[in-house]
Batch of 3 targets.
Target 1
Amino acid sequence: MPTRRAVHIVLGVLVAIVVIGGAALGLDWYKSQFASDATLGDGTPIAGIGGPFTLTDTNGEKVSDTDFAGRPRAIFFGFTYCPDVCPTTLFELGTYLDELGPAAKDLAVIYITVDPERDTPEQMKLYLSSFNDQIIGLTGSQEELDPVLDAFRVYRKKVPLDDGDYTMDHTAAVYLFNRKGEMVGTIAYQEDKKTALPKLKRLLEKS
């Protein structure tokens, strides 16, 4: 017959399993809502993400959110020294723009840096020259970017490297906004083209 202590241990383990399982299910639900096709199912806005901004483009000119008023937007946050996520995503976005044809001209594709220390307008211009020329690069000072990144709930973290340099961890999803400036979905990193491209088509059609 098990002792009272043994029973307590078993109950404790069971409670832990339930808590951990619940947390995992909660994370899976969040990921499915935030990064899946469901986020653009009926065009319902996702509240509390996004906001006004004024930053600097690759020509050194000031650009604000109002310059894109009335246009659907696909916004991606990254940095030019990114080894994989950013070039992959920018290449895919360029491919989608080509496949959208003439309708693509109505879509504002914006790339905002999370690394203002290195990403000057000149550096952004050089970097983006390797991708579709419709992609707009924006940078600014740390003081200008921090409130923008916070408003868009962008995760970013400076990670030191052994050689004294650093890299940046950051949110990898593409944010989708309708013509009213409301967030209505995302494209996940390396999402299948079969779901990613239709999201952009619906964004252009429904907006």
Note: The chain has a mean pLDDT of 84.
Target 2
Amino acid sequence: MRQIARLARLGTVAASILALVEMTGAKADDYPSQDIHLLCAYQAGSSSDAIVRFIGEKLKLASGRTVIVENKPGANANIATEYAVRAKPDGYTIFIHAGSALAANQHLLKSPLPDPTKSVQMIGTINRQAFILGVDAGKPWNTLADLTAAMKAKGAKASYASYSTSGTIMGELYKQATGIEATEVLYRIGANTLNDLKSGAIDYGMYDPAFALAQAREGRMKLLAIASNDRMVSSPDVPTFKEQGIEGIHLMGWFSAMVPAGTPKPIVDQLSKWLNEIVASEDTRKFLISMGSDPWVSSPEIAQKQLAQDIEEMGRLVKVAKIVPQ
């Protein structure tokens, strides 16, 4: 009797497991059967928001479902990140965010969120972008060498603008490479630096490419160097630090799409297929280039590997820039 009861219990457990497997498979096969939510870690109207909404419109066409963008700004993107990792792993909550920023937060916060290599599953990448050093268009400096010489002459009175971790790191690397003594002045957004840049209250700034290229097109700013090893397709006229004789300033940001860890592989594969088709399309390419970034198509595996590499590299750079975790 005991043996019969034991077999009955095992049969019940096996049936439950089989039912769970079949249910998971059915959900994956039916995907998507409801609205898809895209998370943005920044406010509406930001360059990040523009990218999320553009991808959202394309995903709506690909999936045949309504796609809703939810902006959850604040706490250095951690509000959106925490929401994303705690979401149900069913493919209906997708976080579009800079994988490079996700990696940096592991070293910028005293109490970071769980290891993103384990708490999120990458779907794929969207773009690559690099910060740019810019000066007011009315200043006499036309090359990085011009600026460096002027800042050395100015000594401790030199100053520069920054409004992000990438800008802070880039500014510190530039100072260390050239021996200048400029003081960093922190701003909330790039637009807030323009009056001070024009008046001479600050000498130069470290800008995200979408903002910097827009200012250059309007004739308000000259762009002297970009923090990539090679020139970018989106900004072919901006020389790199490397080609101007300054090595080691390579800060590539990249946007990605991700879902909570544990999302069924068939759903991840379907989302990856849609994302790659979206990013590879000509109109997406034109849009991303207009935003100061180069399109980047990749697999979930490549994106996951890049995230792990960036976590390690950002740890080194945060120490080099002497940034104290908050």
Note: DSSP finds twelve helices and eleven strands in the chain.
Target 3
Amino acid sequence: MRRRSFLALPFAAAMTAATAEVRYPEVRAGTSLSFPRDHGAHPEFRTEWWYITGWLEDGHGHAFGVQITFFRSRPGVQESGASRFAPRQLLFAHAALAEPAHARLRHDQRAARTGFGLVEASERTTDVHVDDWSLVLEGDRYRARVVTPGFAFDFTFDATQPLLLQGTAGISRKGPHPGEASFYYSRPQLQTGGFVTIDGVPHAVHGTAWLDHEWSSRYVAPEAAGWDWIGIYFADGGVVMAFRMRRRDGGIYWAGGSIRTARGRQRSLAPDEVAFEPLRIWRSPRTGVDYPVAMRVRAGDIELTLEPLMDDQELDARATVGAIYWEGAVRADAGGRALGHGYLELTGYAQPLKL
């Protein structure tokens, strides 16, 4: 979808004629990001997301995978209309909790048009909410709240490192053509604390998380089916992000990523420096989709073996963004030596994605 799969609106067919007249801006080389403004929403672009994934533990050493995502979409419908109910901007929100102790993934989703103070995404900084789900940035701390019938999140995420601008100064190519790109930055190694409430019982948790903020009007090329993505944070403070865009015919359309070492040295990865090798396939008992949930990933001179916290971390988001994808917490090791944790995202395996 991640960075990412929110992708195809269920009512896309009804909007085709309306969006044909809308001109969305492109990501242009040489554009400089400016903060705190670019922490906020960019409503002129077609698609945007704020994506948090984290590996957390409670006081008993029980691990949890958590995902909180807010997606913004400009559908291009009734933009010239005067009605306050016109769907000029849409917000979608996903939340997921992986509980390996019970081999269960809990997830929920929301969708609404912006307006009336109930559903908003600020253009000044990160301040996005869909009813009682929210993500707010204050200084170098994010605060997230999510309430669902079966679980709830109340987290703080504290920045411990500078922003990681992806690609070239925050412009991340997604294909060989210049317009196939996104504005993209990350905040890895977020120190995380708070509470996970499960069936009314609160659990104090702590751990590490990763935030991506990305916006674009042309994220997935027509030739691409979807992407594989990793965001891994190492115990020594280093981080790696890598992705590949998969072609519909089974080949690789594009790839990229970045590395920041424990000493703070950073570099971007060229397409030929990134490779994903599936090690194990898991088939969803609900959808019948096959996902390569265990991977060997080469990112520059780093080679990682990824194993999931649990196999079943499939998200069925057809009710909101029209997509099915796998988004899961993983362990990262090299040569049998544990290095850290992170998330693996697999999109376009059920059907090609459309943003």
Note: Residues 1-19 have pLDDT under 50 and may be disordered.
